[in-house]
Amino acid sequence: MTACFMNFLVLFYYNACFMVAFIASQISCRLSDLEEAVREKTRMVSMLQVRTKFLEEENSRLQDRIDSITKQKQGLDKLVKDYKLSGKDREVQVGSPEPVHHSCPLPWLC
User: Fold this and answer.
1) In whole angstroms, what is the distance from residue 82 CA to residue 70 CA?
2) Burial 80-100 (b: 16+ CB within 10 A, else e)
């Protein structure tokens, strides 16, 4: 082999080594960026899971309150209906000096 050709091969080898090192460096940087993105997404997923759990618990508490209030309303509706029905059977004295006292099932309305 001639010296010129040997120089060419050496330069080609060093150039190839440089290109491999450059490409490896670029791949390494890209891999680091992707790993950071995965860590960030994992943190976001974890945070969203905590939020979801909190909201599910709050939703359950609110549903329990709705059920309780609905039962209270049904009870009050029944009391009002019973009170109205029992009021039809009563006689009210017109012009009576003494007020007629009824036992009111809903004291805040009386």
Assistant:
1) 18
2) eeeeeeeeeeeeeeeeeeeee
Report the alpha-carbon distance of residue 43 to residue 52 in Å, rounded: 14
Between CA 73 and CA 80 the distance in angstroms is 10
Taking the whole predicted model, whether its pTM rises above 0.85 is answered as no
Give the span between the Cα atoms of 33 and 18, in whole angstroms: 22
**85, 107 Cβ separation under 8 angstroms:** no
> What are the pLDDT digits (tens) for 28-80?
999 999 999 999 999 999 999 999 999 999 999 999 999 999 999 999 999 99
**Residue 106 CB contacts under 8 Å (≥ 6 apart), including other chains:** 76, 79, 80, 83
Give the C-alpha distances (Å, rounded to integers) separating 52 from 39, 41, 96.
Answer: 20, 16, 65
Q: Supply φ then ψ for residue 39, to 5 degrees.
A: -60, -45
